[in-house]
Amino acid sequence: MSFTIELAVRFQDVDAGGVLFFARIYDYCHQAYEEFWGSEGIDRAHFFAGAEYLVPIAHSEADYRLPIRHGDRIRVRIDVARVGRASFTLGYRVTGPEGDLRVEASTVHAFVNRSTMRPIPIPEPLRAILLRHLLREPAPNLAT
Amino acid sequence: MSFTIELAVRFQDVDAGGVLFFARIYDYCHQAYEEFWGSEGIDRAHFFAGAEYLVPIAHSEADYRLPIRHGDRIRVRIDVARVGRASFTLGYRVTGPEGDLRVEASTVHAFVNRSTMRPIPIPEPLRAILLRHLLREPAPNLAT
Amino acid sequence: MSFTIELAVRFQDVDAGGVLFFARIYDYCHQAYEEFWGSEGIDRAHFFAGAEYLVPIAHSEADYRLPIRHGDRIRVRIDVARVGRASFTLGYRVTGPEGDLRVEASTVHAFVNRSTMRPIPIPEPLRAILLRHLLREPAPNLAT
Amino acid sequence: MSFTIELAVRFQDVDAGGVLFFARIYDYCHQAYEEFWGSEGIDRAHFFAGAEYLVPIAHSEADYRLPIRHGDRIRVRIDVARVGRASFTLGYRVTGPEGDLRVEASTVHAFVNRSTMRPIPIPEPLRAILLRHLLREPAPNLAT
């Protein structure tokens, strides 16, 4: 089960070269990630900064297939690519209006105890949500 | 006639002090501004970078009334506060979920010839759109 | 006594129109503001997020005189324009390599108690620093 | 031969979780990348947007080892990890004040003809610069 948001590329996210600045795709992916949790009824202020755990990003990567320009209406699709004991991996497919693949990306998120910063198991209710969105077979393009 | 967008404050737009970084409100206002033109059928790639004119911002200002935090669902309302010969002024009211005023802002936009960078009259079709959204009586708080 | 930083306009801070996105000048002004406190021996992590007070920005404004482009080496000069009981005003002059004025800006900063969010007097050691940088005669262009 | 810049983490680059937003490390790496070309006498406005070629980023990735916080003085070191016919790979090591490793990152840059968007060989003078900075033995951590 995937989760998808649609958004218009903002004027200010384009760089002096006239295309989306490469790092901004991560901003858009993270926006999808926030909406993903929100769509599952998770309070985002609590999840991101108010809980006993933190969920820092341990790894990020992106492959840029086709340029993205100002005003393009793009879709960011999230799939859960892996659920481990204390971390999980998300894959993102960013497509243009005709479904044309623009960027593939992935991020690894690790649960840690807020005080000790040591890894902790993914809390059960969150693990259940992640498993529900887990891709049956890892897409060939997703880092795991 | 006003134009309004709603959006959720992004994780990355909050600063080390825990509230929306003061400059990011202009990003959100500009996003409303883009959507405003889009809602009027104006092609944004053409308007913002592809036309014979440019529309640089000559002035911006904002008054911060109440803090805005991560995850807040805010509304950005645009009104046209002034339509001059070669420039116009927009006013923005940013409100929280209960309609509580968070920020008031305004921007002045000047039409210039792309080659000479000299002021030019606002093109007629665009002026007509602006006039349709012009506030009858300037709100007391809007810079003109 | 003024305080000045010099910086090169980053690739990603330019928008689809090919000039510095208007809101990014506030990012650069705030960078100068951080360096200003740092140059006075103030610990910035403490000042901005760790103290018993907060110093939210109550007002910001900017006048854009000349375009700023990618790679331009600009200087941001800060002057203290006003020191009140519980708030102060900073003025910024952003100039190009030939001293040509590109942007004038100002920000109003208010001290508040972190718990009550009520105004508090500017702490003495900080007031002393601000007074040392206070412009004798307010520059005509600075909002007070 | 490496190239290194030092910078202070800006207030606005920290997220609601209190650490550098993961995508902003790419902004800092790109800033080092700009300065790298500048230090070699390459005009950055020309290189990034004014030449007959474009150099889009084809891939980016980062491993986050330790958190980076507001005000931290960090160093970003660039090495050239690979020079191919039409593309090259850069590796970045981001360290804290005590030389402690915070982030490792890499980016792949491809030269393309501006009109056709087809790959073109790296222009000779630029290739010479890259080769001069090429790591003799690829660091084990750098994607190639």
Written overview of the protein:
Four copies of one chain form a homotetramer. Chain A has 144 residues and is of the alpha+beta class. The first copy, chain A, has three helices and seven strands; from the N terminus they run E-H-H-E-E-E-E-E-E-H. Chain A has a five-stranded antiparallel beta sheet. In chain A, strands 2-7 form a two-stranded antiparallel ribbon. In chain A, a hairpin with a 3-residue loop joins strand 4 (73-83) and strand 5. The radius of gyration of chain A is 16 Å and the shape is globular. The model of chain A has no long low-confidence stretch (mean pLDDT 93). Chains B and D meet through loops of B and loops of D.
Write the layout of secondary structure elements.
4 copies of one chain form a homotetramer.
Chain A: E1 3-8, H1 24-39, H2 44-50, E2 53-54, E3 57-64, E4 73-83, E5 87-95, E6 101-110, E7 112-113, H3 124-132
Antiparallel strand pairs in A: 1-4, 2-7, 3-6, 4-5, 5-6
